[in-house]
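Regression test attached.
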Amino acid sequence: MEFRYLPMTDQDKKDMLTTIGVESTDELFSDIPSKVRFNRELNLKRPANEAQLKKELTDMANKNANLKNNSSFLGAGVYDHFIPSVVDHVISRSEFYTAYTPYQPEISQGELQAIFEFQTMISELTGMPIANSSMYDGGTSLAEAVNLSAAQTKRKKILVSKTVHPESRAVIKSYAKGPNLDIVEIDHKNGVTDLEHLESQLDENTASVVIQYPNFFGQVEKLDRVRDLISAQKKTMFIVSSNPLALGYLTPPGEFDADIVVGDTQVFGIPAQFGGPHCGYFATTKKLMRKVPGRLVGQTTDEDGVRGFVLTLQAREQHIRRDKATSNICSNQALNALASSVAMSSIGKHGLKKMATLNMQKARYAKQKFLDAGFEVLSDAPFFNEFAIKLTKSVKEVNARLLEKGIIGGYDLSDAYPELNHHMLVAVTEIRTKEEIDAFVKELGDIHG
Amino acid sequence: MANKDFPLIFERSKEGRTSYSLPELDVPEVNLDDEFEASYVRKTAPNLPEVSELEVMRHYTGLSNRNFGVDSGFYPLGSCTMKYNPKINEDVARLDGFSHIHPYQDSSTVQGAMEMLYDLQTSLSEITGMHEVSLQPAAGAQGEWTGLMMIRAYHEANGDFNRTKVIVPDSAHGTNPASATVAGFEAVTVKSNEKGLVDLEDLKQVVGEDTAALMLTNPNTLGLFETEIVEMAEIVHEAGGKLYYDGANLNAIMGYARPGDMGFDVVHLNLHKTFTGPHGGGGPGSGPVGVSEELEAFLPKPILMKKDDKLVFEYDRPQSIGRVKPYYGNFGINLRAYTYIRTMGAEGLKKVSEYAVLNANYMMRQLEKEYDLPYPQHCKHEFVLSGRRQKKLGVRTLDIAKRLLDYGYHPPTIYFPLNVEEALMVEPTETESKETLDGFIDIMLSISEEAKNDPELVQEAPHNTIVKRMDETTAARKPILRYED
């Protein structure tokens, strides 16, 4: 069997063994005690040649209903947005994707500068003074923010609105077990945070309040009211999770004095790919600069005074600080941060607002069509590009029938919110056409009866 | 290339230029500002660049030319496994049926994707000898934390709340103690002996009723196989602790030994290392965890399983540590790893480890002529040299690393592991040819000569790179973390 990734010839091997002074490669493994030596062949599928494997995987891919061959109204944290062609051309450059973390700045200026630009773009979008080089995803970034708030305030109680993404809340709870935090969930009223419940739970033991903006239901939370409530408690931190595309239209959380803003840049240039890899971002205040998890790139100069970039403030990180590090994160999502940077560069200053409002206009058109067709909607509060409607049948059943018509229906809210039985969360992005929306409303109406 | 500033994308920006092509507004327009209080409508547009499409490409192509990857040249970065990243992996990851599927689609509509994941987790179970695998963790560090949380849940399920300590060797990677802390444990260190292996006597001293786990890589960070692994497992297990395998170094032993057979209870793997998911300039990675039967109940949920011939995500897992990441892990990276495993098969993966070890030993035996080799036994996939001989000449390991840049090589990992003075950690990987290794060996030997004859040449390196050594002190003292107009 030939293996095209392995360049060693028989003669090479012979020569090298002679140089080492052993008879066979087996001798090099003689330090593995016989008790734990693996003495059979691994039971794996036979190796496949390139043509065969491509065929096999293409067949596997074709078994899946994809977002390109169907019109999708599914969002709930992962969105089908337009991806400019330049994105894939840039991230396919192997100088980027086959590089390691840029620990040698002299030969990594490209990656370092790209990250510095990413940090700047996230800072601009969120209205926060600094941003890091990326986190795994929005959910884990939020969990890191929560743990940071507890460490910073030396408090254990965290208030998380139930309008925060259910999977992010699940991740927060898992991360909270390490430092033994007390996670208290705040109720929602028709898909917005119940501020009275929030106020009743907020006290001098509260490390932070976590709000999503726009929230999981697509609705725009009242950040100014939340901020006012928090400000009554000294030290309590305000953590906001934000879809960065929405910030093309909405006032950024930084202007509501958020302490930490996190989210996912999947909306910029990253395909859904079954939920990952996406790209978390983490933005915060200068005060917390030395507590930020993950990598930070800073600007400096070389010996000749030429501007350049380096990984900086590394005393926060696991490879230096070990058990005293602010987080254990090591690998992040650098290549996806690059994809988002290219997408953001391409969309640009004015394109961003245009893209955000296109989402909003099309979502409003769809919502009005549903109202006209006699559907009940969960709320008439301000929203971004998602809204919830009530069906007469289970969402699962409805979605199965929609797929027969080439439509991927919305998210089944009853999965995470039992009180919202038969409620579908509908996402409408800029790439859905009027025809697709009309067809979706019509088909749902037909099924709805 | 000219030795000067490369403009930031913001500095290329000019009011009125665009690179976007957005869909038409094909629905009746409503006045959005009526819906929102004025304080919620953004007043100042974020300062994103205004550039044409060509300028976007020129900018990022220019940046890529200022970067070094495995496709650019040899990258013998110890503990990072910088092997070739196969191109078929990239192609299949871009198939619409994989890249454009949504995690909340009904499972009946994504059976192809789930089949791939199921086959991957089954393959990884076999390769590691573990009972069950979860593909959810996003990267190695998250896999470590996930594994430790499972160990914690296991002890607590047994009513054992006093196991607060995680033992790590003094040579361990920094993520190990960091993950222990994040999981709510205290990290304690076990010493290495004169052979570079865990000191069994010290281990016996350190373990006790408060031991939750011992975290190990095997081969360890010195590239040496822990020959007394069976005895170590016994010591830890007898004390009631669990054994954690950091899969960073799995590339050395595939088909030769399996962590499960060595007595490890939990394993994490770095698919972006051993299984070629590219490093991407620092990610994304993927860090699956494998467990013994005893710990299966604690795996993160959902788990992917077969039910009535259909693949399903199972959430009914009462003892699970919960969810560690939204959705189902870094699917795109898992797909690349799967493609690699299908390309290599059992025979290929064993050859991978054979050649990774052959290459490392070949380099080690030639480099020890000029560089101190603190641990002279056969190594596995990597080895650690000490630059202390050169240090006496005033040439530091950092200088040697920088001098390598002049010759077009990425340097080895330096100053790690911490228990070797002036460490140089070399991992050639199996995808490099003998000619490449010989070229690097020649240069390393000639740098040693330079250190003797012309130390300044090495001390002042690099000379040929687009920028020279960076002022990292100022970067940290007066941080500039974003562009300002």
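Expected vs. actual: identical. The CA atoms of residues 319 and 330 of chain A lie 8 Å apart.
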